Amino acid sequence: MEKILVISETKDGEVKNPTLELLSYAKNLGIETCAVLIGDSVNSQAEVLAGHGAKTVYLAEDPSLGLFNTSAYTTIIKDAASQSGATQIWFTTSELGGDLAPRIAARLGVGAITDITKLKFEGHDLTAHHPAMASKVIQECTFEDEGIRVLSIRAGFFEISVPEPATPVVVKLSIPEKDLHAIVRELVSESTEGIDLIEANVIVSVGRGVKGTEGVELVRPLVELLRAGYGSTRGACDAGWMPHDAQVGQTGKKVAPTLYIALGISGAIQHVAGMNSSKLIFAINTDPEAPIFNVADYGIVGDLFKVVPVLVEEFKRIKQCA
After folding, report:
1. Do 263 and 161 sit in the same domain of this protein?
2. Residue 276 CA: distances (Å) to CA of 102, 245, 255
3. What is the Cα–Cα distance from 216 to 128, expressed in whole angstroms?
4. Residue 179 counted as domain residue
5. With CB atoms 3.0 to 4.6 Å apart as the test, which of 13, 24, 242, 274 could cross-link to 249 if both were Cys?
């Protein structure tokens, strides 16, 4: 019988939306699901996980786990996998999932499929869709052996279900001894504008077409008005106009918001690979032949410095009428 173990991700002590997406999807499949919860002072989140479908929550809570540590997290997840009897282990496609999914697969002596956008199930067999070659092709991947399946799944492809009151069975896990080979002393991160790009329902991204920090500031009112994540191309990041954590693309974050607004972005394949799963794409560019218009659902050929202020005023008017 199939059993899924979802590896939870938290931020500021709260479970992140991509984890809730995986739990909701697993619940809709009718497959028994449990979750791993790791961190410092995160036990209150066990009920959140249960409300979205986790029957059992394997909890590792300790001040030493407040900062991510590869060795400790790997040991904890392997322990949870053994105790749970899971046939599948699900990670989100993120920095954490990218680090841990292959490590767990190696520890268990099984294969892993990463960056999945779609799953098909036939009993214990499954087929996973994996974008390749900058999303120009979609690979259909399967597992040859009968062991545990290790997967990492891209955010934004599954809906979060309405939570239901539930009390989980909580199993406390042993805390590994401190790993003297690698000690995490501090975590320093850049903050993207607006909300987390991975969780954003709307993303406004800028490219070299904004021409500098003044252009970035011109767009900011639109980001704030839409309560959007503020993204960027690699070119704008490398120029120092936007933080590198805002980069969307093949070497940045892969996002799938409901609405993606591309401002001054030519549409290089490396950037498109990170955002072409968006449900609706709207682009503004002065070049009518810009590749971004090949993937955009709607577009305006025009100067963003003239169009964006008009958009801001129009959205303000719509909000006032709502």
Report:
1. no
2. 26, 19, 8
3. 38
4. no
5. 274
CA torsion angle 297 300 305 309 (round to 10): -80
Whole-prediction pTM value? 0.83
If asked whether residues 160 and 214 sit together in one domain, one would say no
Inform me whether the pLDDT recorded for 276 exceeds 60: yes
Going by pLDDT thresholds of 50, 70 and 90, the confidence category of residue 180 is low
Summarised one tens digit per residue, pLDDT across range 63-91 is 989 888 899 999 999 999 999 999 999 99
Whether the pLDDT of residue 195 is over 90: the answer is no
Residues in the chain: 322
Q: Do 313 and 199 belong together in one domain?
A: yes
SS3 of residue 87 by DSSP? coil
CA distance 231 to 236: 10
What average pLDDT does the structure give for the chain?
A: 92
The answer as to whether 187 is a domain residue is no
- For residues 230 and 291, membership in a common domain is answered with yes
Q: Token pair for residue 314?
A: 């129009």
**Domain carrying residue 141:** 3-172
In this structure, which amino acid lies at residue 2? E
Structure tokens at 254: 């892969």
- Cα–Cα distance, 268 to 291 (Å, whole number): 7
